[in-house]
């Protein structure tokens, strides 16, 4: 039976790698993101490489109306979503809270919290109607502790942690799985975005140790969907061997 996965933030990082892995394993893919050119390029690549179907939705998860309209526009046969990967998220800025930038704060809150809710609120009724589905929320080690200058970013990922636990309770009677995956340091566009495009600063973050790659994290995202129907991984923290938590990294 054909399965469908919807992945937010599929234009880079974990989302892009997850799209490739799900496609490789025979899923039909709904890819979403803000950058249409990247979505089109990914769509073409997935179709060329794998015998699957791809549906493209270009919208910003921060925009509630645009999110609702985009998901409502899916043809009926594409609304039978088996897996939702709430991957869209970002860090913006790295400063003490008393020096924080309101634009950075709003960007993180609107993307990491409201964006996840905007998408989920539109997908959950579709899963409830079918009494099946799996929601995977991409959290962070920053949602398990706080670190210097992390403040609002950490707060948004703590919110993802709480929302994931709440989803698990509220959706329990409907037979829907909810998994939170919390990666540590992974070398993607994450730090470049956090430092507002400063590639030099971004590279310093991963100096002296081997961080995870986006494909490493994607392999775990896919893995949690392969368990028997009666099993669910609720919460999973993932780091490279060199990292113990947000504070401790063994840099050689």
- How would you describe the shape? globular
Q: Number of DSSP helices?
A: 8
Strand order of the largest sheet: 3-2-1-4-5-6-7
Question: End-to-end span in angstroms?
Answer: 48 Å
CATH structural fold name:
Rossmann fold
Regions with little confidence, pLDDT below 50 for 5+ residues: none
Radius of gyration: 17 Å
In CATH terms, what is the architecture? 3-Layer(aba) Sandwich
The level of helicity is: 40-55%
Provide the domain count. 1
CATH homologous superfamily descriptor: NAD(P)-binding Rossmann-like Domain
Task: Throw out a few tags for this protein.
252 residues; alpha/beta; Rossmann fold; seven-stranded parallel beta sheet; 8 helices; 7 strands; 14% strand; globular
